[in-house]
Amino acid sequence: MLLTLTTTHRPATDLGYLLHKHPDRVQSFRQSFGTATVLYPEASEERCTAALLLEIDPVRLARTRGRNAPDFSLAQYVNDRSYAASSLLGVAMADVFSTARSGRCAARQELADVAIPLEVEIPVLPCRGGAAVAHRVFEPLGWSVLAEPIPLEQTHPEWGDSRYVRLHLTGTVRVADALNQLHVLLPVLDESVHYWQGPDEVDKLLRSGEGWLATHPDVELITRRYLARRGSLARTALDRLARLAEVGDETEDALDVDPSLAEETEQVAERRAPLNAQRHDAVLRLLTEAGATSVIDLGCGSGQLLDRLVRQPGLTRVAGVDVSTRSLQHAARRLRLEQMGERQAERVQLFQSALTYEDERFAGYDAAVLMEVVEHVDPPRLEALERVVLGAARLRVVVVTTPNAEYNVLYEHLRGRRHPDHRFEWTRAEFAAWCDRVAAAHGYTVTLHGIGEHHEVHGSPTQAAVLTRKESADD
Question: What dihedral angle (degrees, nearest 10) is formed by the CA atoms of 192, 196, 201, 205?
Fold first, then answer.
C-alpha cells in the first residue's frame, strides 16, 4: 500500500522535521509482516511530499501469525485474523511516525503546534459502505474529501464498483492530528483488523482519538468498526468517550446518529446530553434573559459556543478572544469565516489577546462570557483578570461558569481535578464568595445558577454566575 502526505507550507521541506525523516534519505523499517519505506518523491521550498510504501511479505506474515499456534504442520498458515491491508498500513504508520504522532519536534516545535496545509492520498483503499462512509468520517474533522470508487473491472463497467476507493484529503491540520486520525480511520473504513484485539485496544483508540473522537458525530460508528464490532470493548470505549465529553472542557455538542447509519452503528443506548452541551444551552439562555445584544466570548477556544452565538438573530455583534492562535484557527474553520457573506462576516470578529492585560477591543460589547476559563488562571493572576474584564471593559453583563469541585466525587474514574490545566476548582461556597467580592469591588449585582444534573448533597456539576452592572450616572 502507498500513502503520501504533502504540504505547501513554506519552507515545505520542514515536513521532514515534523515527520522526523530527512527528505534526502530513503529509509526502510522492518515490520513483522513486511517492510515500510519512507521516501520523498518531491522536496522543494514550495511543495514537499513524503511517501510511505508498505510492501507486505506473505511468508513473513504467515510465520508471525503461526508463532504461537498449535503444533501441526499447517498451523502457521491457519489463522482467524483477516488479511487486512489498511490495518497493516495503520500499524506500520504508527511505528514509523511514532514521534510525529506525539506532536513533539525539538527542531520545529512551533510548527508542530500549528495547523498547516496538507494533502493525503491513498491510491487504493478498502472502504466498506462506499465513498459516503469516507466523507462521513473525515469531513467533520475539517478535511475536504475526494473518494473516487474504483470499478470492479475497467473493461466491464456494467459490473459496477469494487469496495475500493482512491482517497484524497485536503485540509489545514496539525501533522500529529492528521497521522492519528489516519491511524484510527484507515482500519475503520476497511472494517477489519489483522490482529486479535484485547482490552488494551480501547486505550490505544482513546490515545489516538484524543481531542477529536469523543465529539465526532459518528463516534459510535468509528468505535464499533475500529474494535471489529467486539461488543464489550466497544461499550467500554463508548462509555469512556461519553465521560470525556461530559467532564472535559474542550468538547463539542453531541450529535444524533444519522438514521441511515442505524445498521452500521447497531442499537445505541440513549444517553443524556453531555454536560458541555448543557453548559452551552444554559449560557445562551442566561444571555437571552439578560437581553444581551452583542457578546464577546473571552477564552473562546475552538469556537464551540461562538458557533451557537453567531446563529442567534438577536445579536448584532459576536467576538471570540483566545490567547492561542491555534484555537482561533480552529474557531475560524468551525465558523467557516471564509464562506460567510459580507453582511454576516461584519458581525463576527476573532482576535488574539490575554485576559490579564487591558485591551480596548474588549470594550463596546453588551455582554461577555467566561465559560470554563477562570479555573485555568493562576490564582495570583485572577485579580488582573477581574480588573480587565469587570473593570476596564465596563460590560453590562458578564456570565461566568466554572466546575463545582464538590460534584467531582460522583465521577467514578476521576482522580483530582477535572482537567490537568486547572489551577484550582471552587466549591459552591468558594465561588459564591468570589462572586460577592468582585461584584462589590466593580459595581455589579450577582445571581448564581447550577448547570447539569442536580445532586441533593453535592449540587450541580457546573456552577454559573450572572454579574449585572449597576446603573450609574456615567452609564
Answer: -10
The residue among 353, 434, 439, 346 whose CA lies nearest residue 398 is: 439
Three-state DSSP state, 370: strand
Q: By three-state DSSP, how is residue 27 classified?
A: strand
SS3 state at 96: helix
**C-alpha–C-alpha distance, residues 93 and 87, integer Å:** 10
φ/ψ of residue 181, rounded to 5: -65, -40
Kindly report the length of the chain: 475
d(CA 328, CA 338): 14
Residue with C-alpha cell 504508520? Answer: 93
Written as one string, the DSSP assignment of 118-177 is: EEEEEEEEE-TT-HHHHHHHHGGGT-EEEEEEEES-TT-GGG-EEEEEEEEEEEEE-HHH
Per-residue pLDDT tens, the chain, 475 aa: give them: 899 999 999 999 999 999 999 999 999 998 877 899 999 999 999 999 999 999 887 776 666 554 444 444 454 555 444 455 777 888 888 889 989 998 888 888 889 888 899 999 999 988 888 889 999 999 988 899 999 999 988 888 888 888 889 999 999 999 999 999 998 898 888 866 555 566 777 888 888 888 788 778 888 888 888 887 566 777 777 777 765 555 444 433 332 333 333 333 333 333 456 788 899 999 999 999 999 999 999 999 888 899 999 988 889 999 999 988 778 888 888 888 888 888 788 899 999 998 988 999 999 999 999 999 999 888 989 999 999 999 999 999 999 999 999 999 988 767 778 877 788 999 999 999 999 999 999 999 999 999 999 999 999 999 999 999 997 645 5
**Buried (b) or exposed (e) across 442-452, using 16+ Cβ within 10 A?**
bbbebeebbbb
Where on the phi/psi map is residue 450: left (φ > 0), alpha (ψ -120 to 50), or beta? beta
Q: Please choose, from the candidates 91, 96, 93, the residue with its C-alpha nearest in 3D space to the C-alpha of residue 27.
A: 96
- CA atoms of 184 and 91, how far apart (whole Å): 10
Burial class for 57, CB neighbours closer than 10 Å (0-12, 13-18, 19+): middle
